[in-house]
């Protein structure tokens, strides 16, 4: 099967015809999804209502935007809906098959339990200073008085932070090679047909052997090798460090069995990729929106100044209410992932349509977070919405929900607040264009076209 076949004939076709949706052939819909994703979602919602079908690669899906439908799907047990199998159809090529993302049921719950201590609570507080140090170093190298894309710098920060979190300090120069290789491999996501290649290889792993794909995947292969070397070296050395790799090496299942080398490798690759790519993109969206709204930026700087500016401790930064509200509002208006996937393991009636077992449904983050009943004047960027109100988990779901909600939700927000505070306190940046960038695909994520082009216009006085 070729790339073109994938566009023309999505892999699975469950019987979801009664659900309304665009009538164009699957190939035309997939191409539209590649090039005009947000317009496609908005048009389908306006024409077909809160529940509609999209025939896009790798398979037709039923998008859900209604609060109650999203609540039911997110709350459903592993015997009613699964996620691992559907996730692998889009992520297998990047992160392999044996990590949290591809698991379901009890093995999934067990793995999440094993991961949680490394990414939350007291452990998180320990990462604050490292996040700050890495941010300062990268930001101090921003070019002066010329336009540049912020994304590579955000990617460098988030990749170095997650590599350090996963491997601790022991990895040294291998960690640097790993971040370089992985960064370069993921940048391929910016190529126009990258999403199709990702979907093709995720649904047809045998195609990886073709020369053209082997060349594209060389960076991933080297990254996998480095991760495997780290695992072998750490197993041999023993020790009781508290980085994520050490915690996973000590983890045991109910029968007392440790994780295998392949499981460890895929889990670490997942953390490295999922743990930085989304965060770097979300940071770019933060700058797109904050820099194009001087009132919001001024209020953020004022709040930060009152708390000690760039010297405020990570803990103080975490507690700043306007910064917290701004981050939530950015993630509402510019979610990095458009929807999450769930596969029905039993028939469900959703949006009034009887859906058979095997249907892939997709709670739509992008549209649910623009529901005017929950967010009046939804296209307006207004952090105040979240100042005194708790986010509704069925209408604010940038990290997904239910038992599959992102394991890095606390880590990502902690890191983004530190990076935002450091940059706002030390840099005077201006967007190269007057408006926030258009949304384009970077592999599976929603990315600001051009990677957030800015100009740094001097240090020390961050006010607009
Ligand atoms: C702004 C940053 C991030 C965003 C927007 C984001 C978003 C998401 C979303 C939407 C999902 C799918 C949830 C679902 O199916 O309901 C997810 C899953 C996941 N994320 Fe994140 N994520 C971010 C950062 C991170 C970080 C920092 C890590 C690790 C340190 C991480 C690790 C994972 C993992 C392992 C899963 C799979 C969870 C499962 O299937 O149980 N993510 N993320």
Ordered list of secondary-structure elements with their pairings:
Elements (H helix, E strand, L loop, with lengths): L2 H6 L17 H10 L1 H12 L2 E6 L2 E6 L2 H9 L5 E2 L1 H12 L9 H15 L1 H19 L7 E3 L1 H17 L4 H16 L6 H10 L7 H6 L1 H20 L6 H7 L10 H14 L2 H15 L2 H13 L7 H5 L2 H13 L8 E3 L3 E3 L2 E3 L4 E4 L1 H4 L40 H18 E5 L7 E4 L2 E4 L4 E7 L5
Helix pairs in contact: 5-10, 7-8, 7-20, 8-9, 8-14, 8-15, 9-12, 12-14, 15-18, 15-20
Explain this structure to me?
The chain is an alpha+beta fold and 464 residues long. The protein has a single domain, classed as Cytochrome P450 (Cytochrome p450, Orthogonal Bundle). It contains 20 helices and twelve strands. The strands form four sheets. Strands 1-2-8-5-3 form a five-stranded mixed β-sheet. A hairpin with a 2-residue loop joins β1 (51-56) and β2. α15 crosses α20. It is globular and about 60 Å long. Mean pLDDT is 91; it is low at 459-464. The chain binds protoporphyrin IX containing FE (HEM).
Rg estimate, integer Å: 22 Å
Question: Low-confidence spans: pLDDT under 50, at least 5 residues?
Answer: 459-464
Instruction: Output the strand order for the largest sheet.
Output: 1-2-8-5-3
Task: Kindly state the number of beta strands.
Answer: 12
* Structural class estimated from helices and strands: alpha+beta
* Total number of domains: 1
The gross shape turns out to be globular
Name the CATH superfamily classification: Cytochrome P450
How would you characterize the largest beta sheet?
5 strands, mixed
In terms of DSSP E residues, the strand content is 5-15%
CATH architecture: Orthogonal Bundle
Ions, cofactors and other bound molecules: protoporphyrin IX containing FE
Helical stretch count? 20
CATH class: Mainly Alpha
Separation, N- and C-terminal Cα atoms: 54 Å
The third-level CATH topology is Cytochrome p450
